[in-house]
Amino acid sequence: MRQNTRPWRRWFGDLTNDARPRQLHAILARDGVELALWRVGSARGEPVLLLHGLGSNRLGFDWPGRSFAAWLAERGYDVFLPELRGHGASERPSSGWTLDDYLAHDLPAVLDAITEITGYSQTHWVGHSMGGLLWFLLATHGDPQAVRSAIAVGSALDYRPGASGFRSLLGLKPLARRLPSVPYGRLMHWLAPTFGRAHASPDAFNVHPSNVEARLNRRLHANAFETIPTSLLEQLSSAFDDSGLASRDGAICYLQPRRRLTTPTLLVAGSRDPQATLEAVRASAEQLGEQARVLELGRSQGCRDEYGHWDLLVGRRAQREVWPRLLGWLEQHPIPAPGRPAISKPTVNE
User: For each of the chain's 350 residues, which pLDDT tens digit applies?
Assistant: First the structure.
């Protein structure tokens, strides 16, 4: 397993998690890349897969003292946190990779491993940012049968509507093409001491500053981000083309589904998310069809503050205002224990 060096840890404190046990399973992607699959807690109930986003790692879902993973485990779920290639403790291929590699090699291996470990034929899927986007692609262009229900947090499929902050970065493509990768994690790590000190600072791209404590903000940026290969960024930039996101070779347009979405899917949108804007999330739900529902969170929905991109997971009030709603969605779509038939509960209109 790959190790990361984070010099700022001595100032930001120990990132040791709570006493709830974590097991690390080393699994192989279908092309032989070694992946880290973390298992949280000792509960052996319904499995839940928590998938990180672009250039990040498992810490967004398993933050010390504010861990959605541990919170679910306390409620009886069997929680798994995969780290895709190049993320966290997983192997980093020297040649780069794309969304296509995640879909063809990493995610099938992860889903197979969860089935083998738990004995359940299905799992719940909760993805943040790119982790939700990958679910949309799997659900409409792959084999989604191993997923009982899904939640996409701060994720969009159709990024053409809305003023996404990613659009403003497209001008950097010529520069990025000269590099094999963008050291985003290292940059965030070294800038971390400056974050959380002014609401106009660059950290607003990831958090709505008033909704995340300053110290947590700095520790998050120091530890939760990774280097991103240029090949992946190039593919993701196609999301802003007229025809939308495409496969690396351009043969697949992901806005033209090969199959309709049949898995109940909740799209959770932050009111001030500069990455997956409300307009983009709404348009994505329209694209996905009747099985997709949208949950918007912010002051106009009765929350104490607005929500950005990461505060939906680790914000000041996420445990009270966000997590219970995600749990409610999982509870509406129970997975039968091995050998038992599924019984769905009525879906609540969010």
Answer: 655 555 655 555 555 556 567 899 999 999 999 999 999 987 789 999 999 999 999 999 999 999 999 999 999 999 999 999 999 999 999 989 999 999 999 999 999 999 999 999 999 999 999 999 999 999 999 999 999 999 999 999 999 988 776 766 656 567 667 778 888 888 888 888 888 876 556 678 899 999 999 999 999 999 999 999 999 999 999 999 999 999 999 999 999 999 999 999 999 999 999 999 999 999 999 999 999 999 999 999 999 999 999 999 999 999 999 999 999 999 999 999 886 554 444 444 43
CA trace torsion 291, 275, 3, 51 (10° rounding)? -10
Tokens of 285: 């739900």
CB 103, CB 110: distance < 8 Å: no
Distance CA(237)–CA(240), nearest Å, equals: 6
Backbone angles phi, psi at 134, to 5 degrees: -60, -35
Which DSSP category does 158 fall into?
A: -
Confidence (pTM): 0.92
List phi, psi (to 5°) of 260: -80, 155
Nearest partner of 309 among 344, 267, 276, judged by Cα: 276
Q: How far apart, in whole angstroms, are the C-alpha atoms of residue 323 and residue 145? A: 25
DSSP string of 175-213, one letter each residue: HHTTSSEE-HHHHHHHHGGGTTS-TTSGGGGT--GGGS-
Name the nearest CA neighbour of 188 among 3, 4, 2, 1: 4
Separation of alpha carbons 263 and 140, rounded Å:
10
